[in-house]
Design goal:
Elements lengths: L5 H9 L1 H16 L6 H12 L3 E2 H8 L3 H13 L3 E5 L7 E5 L1 H21 L5 H18 L1
Antiparallel strand pairs: 1-3, 2-3
Helix pairs in contact: 2-6, 3-6, 4-5
Length: 144
């Protein structure tokens, strides 16, 4: 087994990389006048691929629990980016639906995300990226 240095373990445990990515996205969104968090963006990105889905589907797609998803949807609703609509087949179920403002945000937000992804991965080869993907998948499997 490979021994990790203390600073590597600290970086992993504190989510340092994740925090840096979140800060970068937040700054870029704010610079473009987009008032959303990276978590809200993850919900919107799911809805941009398939609109009018259940809250449970969004929980599964984003790996968020129900209370967290409820808060995210509440905030997106207050920002008028999504709305809850009762399912015509089962009124106990709400479908999460993009508003016009939510639909219109797609192009601008997606461009920001793509630009950051390109900049972040600019000096990483495809082979290195594939190795990283495989290692991260193994780590997740070990934790699951």
């Amino acid at each position: 087994m490979t021994q990790l240095h203390t600073d590597e373990v600290f970086t992993i445990l504190t989510g340092k990389i994740s925090n840096a990515i979140n800060r970068t996205f937040l700054r870029a969104f704010a610079a473009e006048g987009i008032d959303i968090t990276t978590e809200q963006w993850s919900v919107l990105a799911c809805l941009w691929q398939k609109d009018k889905v259940t809250q449970q589907a969004l929980c599964s797609l984003t790996s968020k629990d129900k209370p967290s998803m409820t808060r995210l949807i509440d905030k997106l609703e207050k920002s008028r980016l999504v709305m809850r609509i009762s399912d015509s087949a089962d009124r106990r179920i709400n479908l999460i639906h993009l508003t016009e403002a939510g639909v219109n945000l797609k192009e601008k937000a997606t461009k920001i995300v793509q630009d950051i992804a390109e900049r972040t991965l600019s000096n990483i080869t495809e082979a290195e990226l594939n190795i990283s993907r495989n290692v991260l998948k193994k780590i997740m499997a070990n934790l699951g």
